[in-house]
Structures are given as C-alpha cells and as structure tokens.
Specification:
Elements: H1 3-6, H2 10-19, H3 21-27, H4 50-53, H5 55-60, E1 96-102, E2 106-113, E3 118-126, H6 138-149, E4 156-161, E5 168-174, H7 179-194, E6 201-210, E7 218-226, H8 227-239, E8 246-248, H9 250-259, E9 270-275, E10 280-285, E11 290-296, H10 300-315, H11 349-360, H12 377-383, H13 385-406, E12 412-416, H14 423-433, E13 437-439, H15 442-445, H16 462-468, H17 482-536, H18 543-566, H19 568-579, E14 584-592, E15 635-643, H20 650-663, E16 667-679, E17 685-695
C-alpha cells in the first residue's frame, strides 16, 4: 500500500503528518540528500525539546563533535536566541542592500542604502568564458565584481534572483488561518496540485491578503523550485566570500517595486512582460499584489536566432541558372547575382547577438559587422518580426486565459528587459497586443539612480534593482522559507515567554516590597500633615470669642444698611435720569424711606409684621398659588414731570418712560397718579404727570 492510498481522509492525512512518513519516503529516494530537520515532520506536530529551544546549547554539541560551516551555512535572515545575539549599539541590520542578477552573458549589481532607499551604485559586467554560474571561475569573477563596486559581506545584505526553468510561481486560495495552520494549508494545497517531493524542492509563500470575492479566504503567492538550483546558487556566493541573505524570483521582486508606489501611470491590472536572453516571464499586477504569473518559452534568444537565420540565408548560394553554366572569359570577373552581397557570410549565435545589440540597443560595433551587409533598425525589426509575433501570441493566450477565468482584462502593458531598450521592438510588441507600451524602468523609479546609470543599461538592471529592494522577512526568500521562519518564531516565542515569566516574578516581588514601604511612608507623611493642620488652626474658640465676632458682623451689616439708605436717593435720581427720554423733564423728586423695623436684629419677629418670620412653630406666610412674590421694597419715590414736544407724541413719550422704568433693575411698579395738559406762557402745551415708583 503506497503513500497516496493512505492519504484518503483527514484522519489518515494527519496521521501521516505526525508520523513523518512522507518525509521518510522522500529521504530514501536514490541520489537524494539525507533527511534534514525540515523532513522530520511538521513543526506544528513535533514536540519542542529543550535543545531546540536553546540554540546556544545545540551549537556547543557533544565532546569531539565538529561542525562544517561550509556544508551547512547559516541562512541570511536567521537570528540566534536573545542571549546569543551580538549587542548592537547602533541601528539594526546592515546599512546597505545589494541586488545581484546573473544571466548567461551579463552580471548586474545594484546597491541601495536602506535608510533612505537611495540607489547608490549600479554596474554591469560582461561574463567571459568559464565565469558563468556553476563554472570554475565563477566565484573569483563574482568576488572581483563585488570588490569593484565596493561591497563587503559585513556591511551589506546580498540578494539575488533565481533563473530556473523549474521555478513555479502560483497564487493559491487558502482558508483564513494564521501561524502553523496557515503553513499547513498552503503546503497541502500546493502538494495536491503539484505532487512534489520535500527532499527535492524548496517551497516558500507570501500572503497577499484577503480574496477580492469577499469569501473570507486568503490569497497566497507560492514559489516552488528545485533545491539543487538554490544550493548551487548559494554555494557560488559562499565560495566568493559573500553569503546570500536571500534568493527570490523575478516576478516577486517586481512586486516589491509595485508596492513601493513606483512612478507608473495609473492602472487597474497591468501585464508586466520581462524578456531575458533565455526565458521570459509575464506577471499580472494590481499594484499591491501579484495575481498571476507564468514563464513562457519565447525570449531574446528567439530574436537572435531569427537574425542569425537571416544572415545564414544570405550566405547560402543561389541555384545556378542556364546563363551561369557558361564559362567566363579569361580576365572577366564573375558576375554577382542580383540582390546578393558577395561579402555575406554566416554568423554564429554570439555574433548575431552582438549585431542585434549594435543595431537596436546602441551597443558597440562588433567585428563581424565588416563581413555582413549592414541593416537599419527598421530592417532589423522586420527580420526578427516572426520572433516578436511568437512572443506576442503567447502573451495574448495568457491574457485571454486569465480574462476568461477571472472576467477581468488588463488595461496596461509594462515592458522590462534589455531587449526593450529598443523603442521599435517595444512598439511592435505592444501594437500586436493592442496596448500602449510603458517601460518598467526601475532606475527611473528609484531616487538617485538616473545620474549613476547609463541610459543603455536601464532596462537590463531591472532584476538586480528589484532584488536590492527586497527585505528580509517580507516576500519570497528561498533561503529563509516559511518552515525556518516558523521554527525561529517558535523558539523566539518560547524564549520570550520564559524570560518574561522570570522577569515578572522578580518584578512582582519587588513591587510587593516597594508597595509596603510606600504605604508605611505615606502613613507617616499623613500623620505629620494632620499635626501641621491642627497647629495651623490656632487655639480653640470659646463662647465669648464667638459672641464678639457675631456682634462685629452685625454691626458691619447695620452700617452697610445705613449707607444704602443714604445713597438711595442719589442712585434713584441718576437711574431715573438715565431712563427718561429726551422729551421728558423731571420737575420734582421725593424719596420716601421705609419705616424702621419695630424689632431689632436678633429678636424674634411678631405676627402680622411684614418681612418678619412668624413665631416658632408657625409656618412662614407663603404667596398665593400662581401669584409671584412681591419684591422686597426699600422705599417709594414720587416724581413730577412734563412731556414736551409734539402733542401727538405726549402719550407715546410717557409710555416709553414707563417702559424704561419697568426695565430698570432698580425700580418696579411705576404708577401714574395724575396726568393732564397744561398751557405754557408762550402758547404751547405740555403733558404734566405725577408718578409713584417702588424701589427694589
């Protein structure tokens, strides 16, 4: 009974995970590497031992045990335990980030300052014989290139992109989980689709966010590639003395540029076409996520082959005609067939690539240009048009497939790669697809890059610059995959909890002692304050002192009442003058003070007297229901006056005067006792009146 027969139910699947049967089977495959820590079952099902929780103890090992650092190099993003990490007094991490892109003919390097995101250096190095990845001179060549740029492994994080035909980028939908459950969901979803062996492949994923359909699930970008390709690339940098911090894929590196808010025209869904010498990729981006990715066969090599075939046809001899069978006369030069250049010779692939770069990309003139007829850029585009058309057809089929599956079409076309340094090729490809092309120029998207990089190198540096902006712990990293991150996070969490528990116990004991001491100190301080407050109150008051203070208060109040009575008449006269209109004149003013109270202050009042309370035990008289209590009267003022002016305005002027008195805060209830017309000596008339006004 094989493994696939046992994986038929959830119970059997979980049993297989716990037992690690799948990993054991993969580790026993012929020629496969021995089982490592990642093939001993899943991290969420393995018990955590004390040795796993304490990496420092595991590094010491048993007596006589040795560790081969070259065989098991540390991953670039791994961090030791809290007590084993070096103490950094400055900023965290290295100040520079370096992106390296190695293709068949060119090695590109880009250096970025992490603090400001500024592009500080870019270089392009041609790869000579024996210097390609995996060859003997590759490590020395890589070390020389990094030294020329001024990059050291101590001060920079090195990132590179993996170019492999087995690299698979895919977007999967998984339930909305977290932690180890999310790891398991992504792993088994991809395992069901791809059927890969853990011992031969490396898997990493990046959570893109919730799905757009509102189903509550998550989109995850997965990257699956052969472990041998990753190890070969890492070993090359390690041999050069520059350990890698991360390895990523080109579409994922471009996703980081899109998320940085690159200076591109607004779009809803953009198709990024990246053409390399030996492969091409197409990625569909929405600005903050990669929704689809695919590697396609058509590449720059197809265009080089088309140009080489063209020169091969020119060098091929034409079929002989009847006239050609006649022997030429002595001394005559042989005739050249019409439309045929006698200097035409076949070109190798490398010569055709140099010729294409010279004609369309502004490269230097190669030596082979002397033995073939020259072509203009327009003629060169016509020659490689079949290769461009094949690329366009593959891109078109990919876009149609996505549009049919998701019912969404692209509204922008972004072109990346050295071949698109030629505007004619970009226009030709975009015209066949029905788009307006936009160059994905990463140099122009980054601050400080335009002055450092020649115009001809802008497009070829895109993968290196995108890799330089990659961040450890964010995005696809084939060196520091999700399994490593989960194990490291589990160790960090366990260590943090133990330290926090110990620190909490110590802090609790300290707090208890501190609170007890503070309580005693506060009680002592409170006792001292109470003693000081009692002393500040002075001696205790007796009855004679209280009686004397009451008599002084009564005398002061009586003096204030007498002063108010004396000032009543002047204050009332001033207020009446302010209330009187211009045509009202006051002739006489009489103030009647209220009679003095028959009872002296402090004596009980008599029944029936106004303003005095009743006898003890009897209620104080209250005003009738619905009636307002009459204000306390301080006296009555009698005035006589006349209203002059127009006879028709006499009553209006008197009414205004009465309303002003009513609105005054000093008077109440103005009553006109008598009014009438009086003749003046000059024949005029005035309205004479007499009035009583209460004073509040």
């Amino acid at each position: 009974m094989n493994l696939k027969d046992r994986l038929t139910s959830t119970e059997n699947l979980l049993r297989t995970i716990r037992g690690g049967q799948a990993s054991a089977r993969d580790s026993q495959s012929p020629g496969g590497p021995p089982a490592t820590a990642s093939t001993k079952g899943s991290i969420w099902t393995r018990p955590l031992s004390l040795r796993a929780l304490l990496p420092g103890r595991e590094r010491r090992g048993a007596p006589g045990e040795t560790t081969n650092a070259a065989t098991n190099p540390p991953s670039g993003g791994a961090a030791g335990s809290f007590w084993t990490r070096p103490l950094r007094l400055g900023g965290k991490g290295k100040p520079l980030s370096v992106g390296v892109s190695v293709c068949a003919q060119t090695l590109c390097v880009a250096v970025v300052r992490k603090s400001s995101g500024e592009l500080t250096a870019t270089r392009r190095f041609p790869i000579g014989p024996g210097q390609a990845p995996g060859e003997k001179r590759h490590a020395a060549f890589l070390r020389q290139c990094l030294n020329e740029v001024g990059v050291t492994a101590v001060g920079a994080d090195l990132w590179t992109v993996l170019r492999s035909t087995d690299l698979d980028l895919n977007v999967v939908t998984v339930p909305k989980l977290s932690g180890a459950k999310l790891d398991a969901a992504v792993y088994w979803t991809l395992q069901r689709e791809k059927k890969f062996a853990d011992a031969e492949y490396v898997l990493d994923y990046l959570v893109l966010g919730p799905t757009d359909d509102g189903s509550g699930r998550l989109d995850a970008l997965t990257c699956l590639t052969r472990k041998q390709d990753v190890e070969t690339l890492r070993a090359g940098f390690l041999a050069a003395g520059a350990p890698l911090s991360g390895i990523t894929a080109i579409p994922n590196a471009f996703l980081g540029m899109y998320r940085r808010g690159a200076a591109l025209p607004e779009f809803t869904l953009a198709a990024n076409i990246h053409v390399e010498t030996d492969f091409s990729t197409i990625g569909l981006y929405t600005g903050d996520r990669l929704v689809f990715s695919r590697f396609i066969r058509s590449s720059g090599a197809s265009m080089v082959e088309a140009l080489a075939d063209h020169y091969q046809r020119l060098a091929r001899p034409n079929p002989a005609t009847v006239d050609d069978l006649e022997l030429p006369l002595p001394g005559d030069e042989p005739a050249t067939p019409e439309g045929r250049d006698s200097a035409a010779e076949p070109l190798t692939t490398e010569e055709a690539r140099a010729m294409l770069r010279h004609v369309l990309l502004g490269g230097p003139r190669p030596d082979c240009a002397d033995k073939v007829p020259t072509v203009t850029p327009a003629e060169c585009v016509d020659i490689i048009a079949p290769a461009i058309e094949r690329l366009a057809r593959q891109v078109e089929r990919t876009l149609d497939y996505y549009a049919g599956a998701k019912q969404v079409r692209c509204d922008a076309l972004h072109l990346s790669g050295e071949i698109f340094s030629s505007g004619a090729i970009a226009q030709t490809l975009a015209g066949q697809l029905g788009f307006t092309p936009t160059l994905f120029d990463t140099v122009a998207m980054t601050p400080g890059g335009g002055a450092l990089t020649p115009e001809a190198d802008h497009m070829i540096l895109a993968p290196a610059i995108a890799a330089a902006y990659s961040q450890t712990g964010r995005g696809i990293n084939l060196l520091d995959t999700y399994t490593t991150r989960t194990e490291r996070e589990a160790r960090r969490t366990a260590t943090s909890r133990m330290l926090m528990g110990l620190a909490g116990c110590m802090a609790l004991l300290g707090c208890v002692g501190f609170l007890m001491e503070n309580t005693n100190r506060d009680k002592r301080a409170q006792l001292e304050r109470v003693k000081q407050d009692i002393a500040a109150l002075g001696p205790t008051l007796d009855d004679s002192t209280v009686r004397a203070k009451a008599e002084a208060y009564r005398d002061r109040q009586q003096a204030l009442r007498e002063a108010a009575s004396r000032l009543l008449a002047p204050a009332a006269l001033v207020e009446i003058g302010n209330c009187a209109p211009e045509n009202v004149r006051i002739i006489s003013f009489t103030a009647e003070y209220p009679p003095p109270s028959t009872t002296s202050p402090g004596q009980p009042g008599q029944p029936g007297q106004p303003g005095q309370p009743g006898q003890p035990g009897q209620p104080t008289p209250q005003p009738a229901a619905g009636a307002k209590a009459a204000p306390k009267s301080n006296g009555v003022i009698s005035i006589e006056g006349v209203v002059s002016g127009d006879q028709a305005e006499f009553d209006a002027g008197l009414a205004r005067f009465i309303l002003s008195l009513q609105a005054s805060p000093m008077f109440f209830m103005p009553v006109v006792n008598e009014s009438g017309l009086k003749d003046l000596s000059d024949g005029g008339q005035v309205l004479a009146f007499s009035m009583h006004i209460g004073v509040k």
